[in-house]
Amino acid sequence: MSEIFRNASAGDAWETREINPVFARPGEATSLPRFKLPDDMMSEDTAYQLVHDEAMLDGNSRLNLATFVSTWMDDRAKQLYAEAADKNMIDKDEYPATAAIEDRCWRILADLWNVPDVSDTIGTSTVGSSEACMLGGLALKRLWQQRRRAAGLSTERPNLVLSAGVQVVWEKFCNYWDVEPRYMPVSADHLVLDGHELDTYVDENTIGVVAILGHTYTGLYDPVDALAAKLDEIQEKHGFDVKIHVDGASGAMVAPFCQPDLAWDFRVSRVNSISTSGHKYGLVYPGVGWVVWRDRAACPESLIFHVSYLGGDMPTLALNFSRPGAQVLLQYYQFLRLGREGYRKVQQNSIDVATYLSSGIAAMGQFELISRGDAIPVFAWKLAKPRANWDLYDLADRLRMRGWLVPAYPMPESMTSLTVQRIVVRLGLSRDLAELLLAAIREEVAFLENLAAPMPREKPRTSFAH
């Protein structure tokens, strides 16, 4: 639909929209209020066209190399999505088959992550891995409180040890659940949480340590086994028994297939829980996440609610209540459709595309890689040296003009003076598309290098939000 927007005031608020009469049906309004319900009904075709046309102003999701979230599924998955759009995941009594599939999915993940006894564990689907992280962190806090109360000690000052490079969900967790965040700074020598100086952050009030399997800034893995070994030393010296939650939003659905010998999961005895995003490298449309605990003792009973299910009892735990069931079915579809070998091929292909791109960018000469994309298929780079007339924000702007979203942003606290640029490779970014992207980067770098004066900047730069 062709649209003309009219500003009804001198401010920035767009109060009404006018509909070109060519597309309006007899008896329908030709202008609509923007922030109020319209008085009358309209044809479903007109309503669809209005929403459809405005949504076209969004970018092309396939070219969004900032997001980790899946932007492509096959036609059968789309069909299944449409058929299941009305299912409410929380209504287990009315949708028992979907409830059974949810239970099956997290048990599949528990097995994939080498849980010691799949019959003595618990897990759940969530709206995304942010909710899963909240549940994993909350379980750590409750376990710590139980131990402290049993020993007659105070429970008033819990803290959680985190890398400064964690995703913002952990800042939210600490804020919402009254936990002191203890951020360990990153540096050029310690880009990941590797146990360096960990003993200066851990004390008797530490509820746990968060390990990240795939940092959003760089794609790098925290070495979970090295963290666990350091915590073993701390327990031997100070008596603090501190567990680990693995935030595997991305890597927990890559490492089992592409780095199967890497010890990061429940093979590491200090790992209490693992979370992941089904809608990232689980290859499902948003939004679905998963969290699994080592065993039932690792998830306090106080977090679990019990519902009637097929005449029996089903434990359930989640922060959200009503939520879509379709994505859970899509996750199971992918598990069946791909299996271990299919997931390995898909994820390895993404890694191959990522390393192809990172090698091409490194070869240009203007850039230096921070990571290569050989862990999860995500990599970042910096300028090898400052350029006279442009920076990475300018390159991001030039690529955006061509439809590619390749963000530039500062590194986390203690490294904020360093600006990097990052690419996330997902299913749907083929080698052919990667070649087109690499050609676009080369062309835009050539344009920027030939500038006779600095790029004009009308306002302060805004960094990419993780």
UniProtKB/TrEMBL annotation:
<feature type="modified residue" description="N6-(pyridoxal phosphate)lysine">
    <location>
        <position position="280"/>
    </location>
</feature>
<dbReference type="GO" id="GO:0030170">
    <property type="term" value="F:pyridoxal phosphate binding"/>
</dbReference>
<dbReference type="InterPro" id="IPR010107">
    <property type="entry name" value="Glutamate_decarboxylase"/>
</dbReference>
<dbReference type="GO" id="GO:0004351">
    <property type="term" value="F:glutamate decarboxylase activity"/>
</dbReference>
<dbReference type="GO" id="GO:0006538">
    <property type="term" value="P:L-glutamate catabolic process"/>
</dbReference>
<dbReference type="InterPro" id="IPR015421">
    <property type="entry name" value="PyrdxlP-dep_Trfase_major"/>
</dbReference>
<keyword id="KW-0210">Decarboxylase</keyword>
<keyword id="KW-0456">Lyase</keyword>
<keyword id="KW-0663">Pyridoxal phosphate</keyword>
<dbReference type="GO" id="GO:0005829">
    <property type="term" value="C:cytosol"/>
</dbReference>
<comment type="similarity">
    <text>Belongs to the group II decarboxylase family.</text>
</comment>
<dbReference type="InterPro" id="IPR002129">
    <property type="entry name" value="PyrdxlP-dep_de-COase"/>
</dbReference>
<protein>
    <recommendedName>
        <fullName>Glutamate decarboxylase</fullName>
        <ecNumber>4.1.1.15</ecNumber>
    </recommendedName>
</protein>
<dbReference type="Pfam" id="PF00282">
    <property type="entry name" value="Pyridoxal_deC"/>
</dbReference>
<dbReference type="GO" id="GO:0004058">
    <property type="term" value="F:aromatic-L-amino-acid decarboxylase activity"/>
</dbReference>
<dbReference type="InterPro" id="IPR015424">
    <property type="entry name" value="PyrdxlP-dep_Trfase"/>
</dbReference>
